[in-house]
């Protein structure tokens, strides 16, 4: 398994000295500002430390008490003068975080980042970084949303659809351009589906005509000669389709590290059997759907893992967790927390490894991204 992050985060007490120690250091004549070149590191080295600490996310704030790309605690950030730039490290620019990191390095040495300093080659003898902490932050260009796809004509849709294994109301509504999404499809076929929209069975025939009938344009009498015809109302924008009921994203940040089916590496199957989400240690991990926990604990190279069996017969696996919140035999809901992400097992850094399988055992994997998208979770 691989990810963009690179270490298991130590405790706050192991990473930074206390505020009291800083006061003693300052009173002993140790400068807390203006680190010299003999006690510095290049921007490239700090980038490597950030890659290890936070997967290179200089705005990292996962709620675990560490902030920014270099994972400062608030007490360390305050003690070394970081508040002259921003209240917390994650609110400061990259150059500002490096400037404060230089002060920490001058006083505490590379041991302030006990794991990542070794992996990044961080020492006190590097060249001074070329940074401009007082410069105004560069404005970030706004990402334009893609234009919505035009709705298909009524004649382009079949009148009925027969359910096959792996289908969901959301996926059927999307692929057949059903107006009103899965909610409208369920409303028109509730008598067939039953009370639970998450449970549809292979062989069921669903009507795709209901929306046409419900949305038939009313006939109006021609306006009188003396009357002016009313202005046509502006068409309403279609709402973004909601995720299928009972389904949830596994983590808040769905940026993909190692994709599904990537070849090479040291994987037994010869390819990556899941998808990696490179999130920092301590990120909440949630079940993608309702189901039953069939195993929770140590899983060899997967480290601490949770495996859940879902109503559609699929299994989801969540690997390399630093902490578990559920146990085998427990029933969970989609979106319920299963534990915290980490770097246990055979990994090179913190991330969540997610697999979706047709059976509980290794080797029955399917594309987890396609599975999530089929249930309205956009990646």
Automatic annotation (TrEMBL):
Keywords: Hydrolase, Signal
Keyword Lipoprotein: no
Biased composition (Low complexity): 231-244
Positions of the LysM domain: 159-208
Signal peptide interval: 1-40
InterPro entries according to UniProt: Cell_wall_metabolism_enzyme (IPR050570), Dup_hybrid_motif (IPR011055), LysM (IPR018392), LysM_dom_sf (IPR036779), Lysozyme-like_dom_sf (IPR023346), M23ase_b-sheet_dom (IPR016047), RPF (IPR010618)
Region annotation Disordered: where it falls in the sequence: 124-160, 193-244
Top-rank taxon, per record: Bacteria
Entry-linked PROSITE patterns: LYSM (PS51782)
SMART domains the UniProt entry points to: LysM
Family: Belongs to the transglycosylase family. Rpf subfamily.
Protein name, UniProt field: Transglycosylase family protein
Organism field: Streptomyces meridianus
């Amino acid at each position: 398994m691989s990810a963009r992050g690179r270490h298991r985060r130590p405790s706050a007490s192991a990473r930074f000295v206390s505020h009291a120690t800083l006061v003693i250091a300052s009173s002993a004549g140790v400068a807390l500002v203006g680190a010299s070149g003999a006690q510095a590191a290049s921007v490239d080295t700090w980038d490597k430390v950030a890659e290890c600490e936070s997967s290179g996310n200089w705005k990292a704030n996962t709620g675990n008490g560490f902030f920014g790309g270099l994972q400062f605690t608030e007490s360390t950030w305050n003690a070394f003068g970081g508040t002259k730039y921003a209240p917390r490290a994650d609110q400061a620019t990259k150059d500002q975080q490096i400037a404060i990191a230089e002060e920490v390095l001058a006083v505490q040495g590379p041991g302030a980042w006990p794991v990542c300093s070794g992996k990044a080659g961080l020492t006190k003898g590097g060249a001074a970084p070329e940074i401009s902490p007082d410069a105004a932050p560069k404005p970030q260009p706004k990402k334009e949303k893609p234009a919505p796809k035009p709705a298909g004509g009524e004649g382009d849709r079949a009148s009925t659809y027969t359910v096959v294994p792996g289908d969901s109301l959301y996926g059927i509504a999307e692929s057949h351009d059903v107006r009103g999404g899965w909610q409208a499809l369920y409303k028109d076929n509730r008598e067939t589906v039953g009370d639970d929209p998450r449970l549809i069975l292979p062989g069921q025939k669903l009507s795709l005509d209901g929306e046409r009938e419900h949305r038939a344009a009313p006939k109006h009498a021609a306006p009188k000669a003396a009357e002016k015809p009313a202005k046509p109302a502006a068409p309403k924008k279609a709402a973004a389709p909601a995720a299928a009921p009972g389904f949830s994203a596994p983590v808040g940040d769905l940026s993909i590290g190692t994709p599904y089916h990537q070849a090479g590496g040291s994987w037994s199957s010869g390819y990556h059997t899941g998808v990696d989400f490179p999130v920092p240690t301590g990120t909440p991990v949630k079940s993608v759907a309702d189901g039953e926990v069939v195993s929770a604990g140590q899983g060899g190279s997967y480290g601490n893992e949770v495996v859940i069996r879902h109503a559609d017969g699929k299994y989801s696996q969540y690997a390399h967790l630093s902490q578990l919140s559920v146990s085998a035999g427990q029933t969970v809901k989609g979106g319920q927390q299963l534990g915290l992400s980490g770097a246990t097992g055979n990994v090179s850094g913190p991330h969540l490894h997610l697999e979706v399988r047709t059976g509980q055992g290794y080797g029955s994997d399917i594309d987890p991204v396609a599975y999530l998208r089929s249930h309205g979770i956009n990646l």
